Amino acid sequence: MNPLTLLAIDDDKSIHSVFQDAVSSTRYAKHIQFISAYDGELGLKCLNYQPIDVSFVDFKLPKISGLDILKEQTEKASATDFIMISGQRTIENAVEAFKLGAKDFILKPFDYPDLKSHIERLFEDHQVDTKPFGGKGTALRSLIGESPSMIKLHRQIEKVAQSDLSVLILGESGTGKELIARAVHDSSKRANKPFIAINCGAIPRELIESELFGHEKGAFTGAVSKKIGCFQQADGGTLFLDEIGDLDFDLQVKLLRVLQEDEIRPVGTHKKVKIDLRIISATHRDLESHMAKQLFREDLYFRLNVFPIHAPALRDKVRDIPLLAHHFLEKIHQRYGGQKRILSDRAIQQLCNYGWKGNVRELRNYMERLYILLDDVTIIDQIPEDLFQFKNFKSSVQTPIGLNGQKLISSGQVSTLAEVECMAIKSVLAHFNYNILKTAQALSIGRDTLYRKMKLYDLRNPSKSSC
């Protein structure tokens, strides 16, 4: 069985005792690792420095609130499932949590048998999510859609799967790039071998080399035992490097060497290890812009981009929204049980009219919020627009902030999205005199994200920044 890592973030120590007892009494106890954090700051450190499958987070925490934790992790596209806990039964709390990406919302004090059953269901769901695909083409069938862009995507996957070419998947966040990578693997001759995925942007720079290459015992402070890295774990199969655009520049050199020589050297040893695997990478970033700014190696780009695949945005395949919405409702019903929900034509039209900035991931999360909150409804005829994540969003900045007089369209030339983003960040930074905290809050992004974008657009020094 695959292990499950649970993290509870709550300042009430008695809550952690209840969790520990509930975990210990489940039939899967030996396969569950339980971690406690007594304030938001410590909780964030746990989330940022080790993989967590499920995190229970209290709304009210010292230092950093539960919603702030949820917001930051959502911005980082964290793979952790978040369940918010509260002692207050208010719909406002639930709506806010679900809008930020929470999977569930439970009340304190806990009913012990219910909590135990809940943890067992989480473990069982985790097994379903992580089990190997059961046969050629299974993941390909999970890419639901009948639009021209999805038909093209299926054909591309079927073609490239028959080779061992490196694949680069391009597309916005939430478009299902990992699912596409799994479909390529699942349709290939390596289907019965491991598929290992790692998010290059979610792991701290100090740890990413060890995660990829592994290390020997004593290789550095804290290396108390030998670790097998992702390259060796994926030997014979496929290694999926998500958010490759965020990979540290120095590590790009080492990755290029791996692609050229088909061998790695774990940290702390001079011994080389031969590997045989396929590399699939993905990013939502403009790598050509990164190369121009010397943030991404050109030689590595051409090694990875042998066969490019574009993951279409949801707004570009509107005809697939009804299929996806009904699919997600059925999956959620299988998970939670209770009364089935059916979408009326009016509700479907509302879904089709929404912009879905977060793409398929946002649609899936929205359908889960809808299912949970409308638990007494069979036919959903009216979509609650206040549950949409981005519609009618207002910045915390009260006064209009211009773009320093720069025009988006000038002499027939349209600015690129990267140029518009650069201008916007530069303008807000100037407005707040380069106060990082205020700028990040105004833009509704995390400080780490802001720092990365400042580096990308060379905005760290006002006297030298340029777009």
- In whole angstroms, the N-to-C terminal distance is 51 Å
CATH topology of the largest domain: Rossmann fold
Mean pLDDT: 82
- Low-confidence segments: 131-136, 392-412, 463-467
Quick one: CATH superfamily of the largest domain? P-loop containing nucleotide triphosphate hydrolases
Instruction: Tell me the helix content.
Output: 40-55%
Provide the CATH top-level class of the largest domain.
Alpha Beta
- Main sheet record: 5 strands, parallel
Helix/strand/pairing category: alpha/beta
Tell me the domain tally: 4
What would you call the shape? globular
If strands are numbered along the chain, what order do they take across the biggest sheet? 2-1-3-4-5
Overall CATH architecture of the largest domain: 3-Layer(aba) Sandwich
> If helices are DSSP runs of H or I spanning 4 or more residues, what is the number of helices?
19
- The gyration radius over C-alpha positions equals 23 Å
In what range is the share of β-strand residues?
5-15%
Total beta strand runs: 16
Question: Would you write up a description of this structure?
Answer:
The protein has 467 residues and is of the alpha/beta class. The chain has four domains: 4-130, Rossmann fold, CATH 3.40.50.2300; 159-310, P-loop containing nucleotide triphosphate hydrolases (Rossmann fold, 3-Layer(aba) Sandwich), CATH 3.40.50; 315-387, Helicase, Ruva Protein, domain 3 (Orthogonal Bundle), CATH 1.10.8; 409-456, Orthogonal Bundle (Arc Repressor Mutant, subunit A). 43% of the residues lie in helices and 13% in strands. The chain has 19 helices and 16 strands. The longest helix has 19 residues, at 112-130. The protein starts with a strand and ends in an 11-residue tail after the last helix.
